[in-house]
């Protein structure tokens, strides 16, 4: 079971403010909800990509680069990121061929 990340932030007045980040799949499990294929995919993606914007990319170890193209990723990690992009594109702009399948619980 993954543990939540605790990240400290400076709150007004100089006191540290902490919040926790729970992986979505774990939150679903804790609340008795089934983990869907979509959330399982995002959990896998979070292992290889923390942030991917037009300006920069941060891999799963926290190493930044100018973009995903420049990042030192394995072919498998690149395929995983492409799968996420394809799933999101299909859900938002495509014919939603895979949307229903991604909402199915992981077996």
Kindly state the percentage of residues in helix.
25-40%
Structural class: alpha+beta
- Morphology call: globular
Oligomer: single chain
Order of strands, main sheet, comes to 3-4-5
Largest sheet: 3 strands, antiparallel
* β-strand amount: 15-25%
Please sum up the structure shown.
With 107 residues, this protein is of the alpha+beta class. The chain has helices at residues 24-30, 37-45, 75-92, 99-102, and strands at 5-10, 16-21, 49-52, 57-59, 64-65.
Structure description:
This protein is of the alpha+beta class and 107 residues long. It has four helices and five strands, in the order ββααβββαα. It is globular. Residues 1-11 and 15-19 have low confidence and may be disordered.
Features:
three-stranded antiparallel sheet; 4 helices; disordered N terminus; globular; 36% helix; two-stranded antiparallel sheet; 107 residues
Write the layout of secondary structure elements.
Layout: E1 5-10, E2 16-21, H1 24-30, H2 37-45, E3 49-52, E4 57-59, E5 64-65, H3 75-92, H4 99-102
Antiparallel strand pairs: 1-2, 3-4, 4-5
Helix pairs in contact: 2-3
